[in-house]
Design a protein that fits this description.
Layout: E1 6-11, H1 19-32, E2 37-42, H2 44-49, H3 55-72, E3 79-83, H4 88-98, H5 103-108, H6 110-118, H7 120-123, H8 129-132, H9 134-144, E4 149-152, H10 157-174, E5 182-185, H11 214-222, H12 243-251, H13 256-264, H14 270-297, H15 299-327
Parallel strand pairs: 1-2, 2-3, 4-5
Helix pairs in contact: 3-14, 4-9, 4-15, 9-10, 11-14, 12-14
This protein binds iron/sulfur cluster.
Length: about 325
């Protein structure tokens, strides 16, 4: 089966995108849309697996996440943006693929194991069937749109491995039907939170969002963790333990050497250092925030992009469904 490589990626609409997403995957996504046909899923069904009791949150964030994507430079002429729940073929494929995966295999999936441990506050001791099975639904997402390249971080590799197993098993039992996807491993590192936590996240309260105002950026950076041993400006500092220096690496590349040298030599005050970072972050995200403002003022355009993208995605998914049903001998002509 020869096919032009196609990217399938997406975001869960559970909150706005932050600089962790931006440096971790979004910048890369903007570059990739020029090289490959790109499908971007707003994964509302997946978001509901651990937000089933808070549908308002998911609904509220669908457009927010699309505006974030458009603001960073996703071009709807190059990328198809669609809403997962509006493609019923994904749910159908999930049911079919469920026969090809054992519960023990899902429970062994390292990504699922880690996430279940992190979500004890939601699930308690017993995880839902829907959450345990989300790798199956993800395999349905990928294969419905004939995704062949799936950008992921290292921690998500087991999900792609599980999807590949499903594709292999399906094709072995029912005949060559599904395209085999491969992971596109991002070389970008995970970005740490303002408090030094390895992960930046909304629930951790340590994130700078792409939509944050100047004032919010200012407040957040001023509270970032610095070298705790430094009390006075002329104390010799250690930028290696300072989150402000860490973010300067992202936003102030040209002056980084100088910043670190001045810090180590006790020639730089932490307040001035933070102010410089704030100015650079605001400057970096200015075009993104201007674009966001444009889409916020033209919400009908966002609706149109989503509607057209979803229609296009549905056509692809229904083609896949036809092939799948034929292979499974459930394409009744009655
Ligand atoms: Fe961090 Fe800058 Fe203070 Fe050094 S001078 S500890 S890099 S904030």
């Amino acid at each position: 089966m020869a096919i032009k490589d196609r990217i399938l990626t997406g975001d869960r609409p559970t909150g706005n995108l932050h600089i962790g997403h931006y440096f971790g995957s979004l910048k890369n996504r903007v570059e990739l849309q020029d090289k490959y046909e790109t499908f971007i899923e707003v994964a509302d069904v997946q978001a509901l697996t651990d937000n089933f009791n808070n549908p308002e949150k998911v609904q509220r964030n669908v457009k927010e996440i699309v505006i974030d994507q458009l603001s960073i430079g996703i071009d709807p002429k190059k990328a198809t943006i669609f809403i997962q729940s509006m493609i019923p073929e994904i749910a159908e494929l999930t049911v079919f693929y469920s026969n090809l995966v054992t519960i023990a295999r899902l429970e062994r999936n390292p990504t699922v194991k880690t996430e279940i441990a992190q979500k004890r506050h939601i699930f308690g001791e017993s995880v839902t069937y829907g959450f345990l099975g989300y790798p199956i639904s993800q395999a349905a997402d990928i294969t419905a749109f004939k995704g062949t390249i799936i950008p992921v971080g290292e921690d998500q590799l087991p999900l792609i491995e599980q999807c590949r197993e499903i594709v292999k098993k399906f094709n072995t039992i029912y005949g060559e039907t599904l395209y085999m996807p491969k992971a596109y491993l991002s070389t970008n590192k995970r970005i740490k939170g303002l408090d030094g936590n390895e992960k930046m996240g909304k629930s951790l309260g340590n994130a700078i969002y792409l939509k944050d105002s100047d004032d919010e950026i200012n407040k957040k950076v001023m509270s970032a963790v610095t070298d705790p041993k430094r009390i006075r400006k002329d104390d010799l500092g250690n930028p290696d333990v300072c989150m402000v220096a860490y973010y300067h690496k992202l936003f102030s590349k040209n002056s980084l050497d100088n910043i670190c040298a001045e810090c180590r030599g006790g020639k730089r005050g932490c307040v001035a250092c933070k102010k410089e970072l704030i100015a650079n972050i605001i400057d970096h995200f200015k075009p993104i925030r201007e674009k966001r403002k444009f889409y916020e003022e033209n919400l009908e355009l966002v609706d149109k992009i989503l509607s057209e993208g979803t229609k296009k995605a549905r056509i692809t998914a229904s083609e896949t469904m036809k092939d799948v049903k034929k292979a499974m001998k459930i394409d009744y002509k009655i």
